[in-house]
Structure formats: C-alpha cells, structure tokens
Amino acid sequence: QVQFVESGGGLVQPGGSLRLSCAASGFTFRLFAMNWYRQAPGKERELVATITSNGGSTNYADSVKGRFTISRDNAKNTVYLQMISLKREDTAVYYCKRMYRDDDWGQGTQVTVSS
To answer: How many H helices and E strands in the chain?
Structure first.
C-alpha cells in the first residue's frame, strides 16, 4: 500500500524557515520522481516543486523559486522541502506524492506563516 507521511510544518513568522519531510512507503522510492504540493484555504491544490528519481533535476513554481529547495534521500525513502524567507501567502497544507501516479493523498502538514 502506497503511503506518504508528511511532517515538519508549524507556525513561523514571516521571513522564517521550515524544513518539511515526507516519508514514502509501499513502492520502490528511488524509481519515481516526486512532487510537493500545497493547498491554501479556499484555493485549489497547486504543484510547488518536483525532483527527478535520482535527484539530478528539480523544478519549482514561480511563486517559490529561489526560496524553496526540494531534495531527497533515496536510502531513507524521504523527500524534503526546505523553505526560507517564508511569506504569509505560503500558508497552506503541504503534501507530497509521486509524479504521474494517482496515489491517495497523505494527511499533509500545516504550514502557517503569521506574526
């Protein structure tokens, strides 16, 4: 059974930093590209960042480019999202999932950027 367990969210002030983790299981992690998504209140879920299976290539939404960094540890079946210079508009529930697969969503991790 494919599962994603996101963690690392919390309350942070504008300009602060957080590092999110996503532990994946139920499939051969190293073979799949991975995505981070987010969903803000009242908005549709959006793709934030992508990383290839070997970590050699990444891509970001324009809204987070230069502030967020996606990475992965294939030995730990985990994908990360390092976020710096956080803005109020980054407030959302963050999720990870495999690229191109219709997996069930995990529970997500809440990130709240507020003073």
So the answer is: 0, 10
